[in-house]
Please model this.
Amino acid sequence: LSIIYIITLMGNFVLLAVFMMNPSLRNPKYVAVCNLAVVDISLNSVIIPQMVPVFVFNLNYVSFGTCFSQMFFMHLFGDMESFSLALLAYDRVIAICFPLRYLTINTNLRMLLILLGIWTLAFLLEVYPVALASSLPYCASRVVQSCCCEHGPVYRLACSDISFNRKLATAKTLAVLLGPLSFIIFTYAVVVVAVLKFASTTQRWKAFHTCLTHLLLVLVYYLPVILAYVLGN
Model:
């Protein structure tokens, strides 16, 4: 875990350093990529340092406040991973379908405003469920059936009616997963239709190649998350 964490940090910090030192990369696409790097650093920094003591030293105690703080930030950054991938899909569809108008449609300022909007949305999506879970009475078992303070395993320990918490968690999870994923699928359907209209095979391959890295990121992120959600239910 420590090695994975260090490699993740190094890779993302190198990406951020290259972006900061190279003025030619300061365009909407790389603003979105750097946002994803910041989210990746933050998510791993919330989860892995808390997991190492559990697996390595068998220190499986966490205070009430720390648990809910970790829960909030873990889900906040998890939401942002999903939204950031959707943002990159938006950037790609503009770049491929409107290449000559790309820099006028998708400016750095517009990208920053969109980022501000999705960070605010992610915050609002998480603050109420976590606050609601923290107000529940926990008078029975306090053993969380998870390696970290996830929302579901924690609120299920409450000794009161949790039906509303369960419905809220399901609705929020589906919105965070299916909303961005549906948008990504839609944007790639638009991209495929646009690319098939290209006369040159070279142009088609170049257009698909620009999307390849993003598609891999989408698969790496969504497949484990969806499998974990399905198996967990």
Q: What stands out?
A: Residues 62-232 form one domain. The mean pLDDT is 86.
